[in-house]
Amino acid sequence: MSRYALYLASVLLALLSAALAPLERAWWWGVAGFGLLALAGTLDLLQRRSTLRRNYPILAHFRYGLESIGPEMRQYFIEPDTAEVPFSRQQRALVYQRAKSVNDTRPFGTLHDVYGTDYEWINHSLRPAAIESHDFRIPVGAGRAQPYAASVFNISAMSFGALSPAAIRALNRGAALGGFYHDTGEGSISPYHREHGGDLVWEIGSGYFGCRDPDGSFSEARFTEAARDPQVKMVEVKLSQGAKPGHGGVLPAAKVSAEIAATRGVPMGRDCVSPAAHSAFSTPRELLLFVDRLRTLSGGKPAGFKLAIGHPWEWFGIARAMHETGVLPDFIVVDGAEGGTGAAPAEFIDHVGMPMHEGLLLVHNTLVGLNLRERIRLAAAGRIISGFDIARTIALGADWCNAARGFMFALGCIQARSCHTDRCPSGVATQDPRRWRGLDVADKGQRVHRFHQNTLRALRDLLGAAGLRHPQELGPEHILRRVSPTEVRSLAALYRFLEPGELLRGVPDEPVFRQYWEESSAEAFAPPPRVLALRASRSL
Fold this sequence. Notes:
About 40% of the residues lie in helices and about 10% in strands. By secondary structure, it is α/β, with parallel strands linked by helices. The chain has an eight-stranded parallel beta sheet. A three-stranded antiparallel beta sheet has the order 1-14-15. Strands 2-3 form a two-stranded antiparallel ribbon.
């Protein structure tokens, strides 16, 4: 109730002032002042566009006032101990503008230092292209019984349980309106995912939620029943995620509501454990056979896996298994360590996993080197917000991009960083109905849709300015980066891109391939002999 304390106090003081005003004229000032506050709070409660104002009547305006002053006041009063506040503020401002279809043009040039290192841009053409549609599609699972045409921009994995029922409803409503997909996260398919009928990619994690037997093992029967629902368009095995790769997780028993228990297929009153590793497979070869099994059980829908790149030899083992067995996933999603909206230990957030650009490039190069890239679609996720972010990621090798953070901003997330406390002020990351009921699904679903559409329009305009007609025409030569005050390089010059079939002809002259490729194995995720030998020498 403390959220409503100022509002209730204003109402009571306005009434008290009105009662005393006939006795003492000075109380009319109290009627005016407290009455205006009470009116503002009442309007906050009745409006449906801002969840924050509905959950924090009157108080929310103090935050907006501080935010309007600028990033310096924001850093001290709103998001303390944050090194990236100005950047985050710009990100959110862009998403809010596009989610509300507010004009996002601005005067007086770029906000970036164009002479500083790491500044990036896309070169334009003197012969711009006119592109009619911004609905760019990537076919996935060609030749399968139920192929899918994916948008180049989709909602990344966020589970029911981590997000509120209202947030899941709004995300899926936006996906249905825009014809793009909504990744369920490993928390399985809840009734809230089904309410608006938006396309789903069902993520299967190590807990096999929604398709598990009572002992936590994978259940073919339960998977088949759910995966054959027409709303499920693709199936994705989650090996690891950007927020906390290799960590697993526990949802405490107190947070396992009846709805979450029913959705995940776990008992109430007990901790819901998501193990760090899968039990359905233990080698690269077994992983691919499991993916193929899911494809068959789903009725021929595209199936793939998601991973944050860690030990290179483990990824190489998977690639070798593809080459040796001919069993291929329809798609691979590379999750960057810089991404992840879920709460995780500080060390995992800051120092575990490979950043998206390096991970994406390694996966892309390996598939190209094995002549497999044309047969496997590649997606990427990791702090993707703008049309330029999408263009740069596709130029490095992706076919499409997923985003979590941007779509959370579209829902009204203010990065209060209280996701793990169940006290999310915007109703996005909480299971407290007193908080999430303030999130208007119809309004926020429209904002999710508009953010997606306006971002793709921006991508279309970037492509047209560069003289291109589709994102698949983008290459690393189109993106430029200033690497020093006096030197500019294209991504094609900065990174080594393998030639088709190069890995079949020998080991490329690249450190990561020289060190780990030849000793990687399709039969185990274990370290190669060279790594074990180095460990042994250090222990002597």
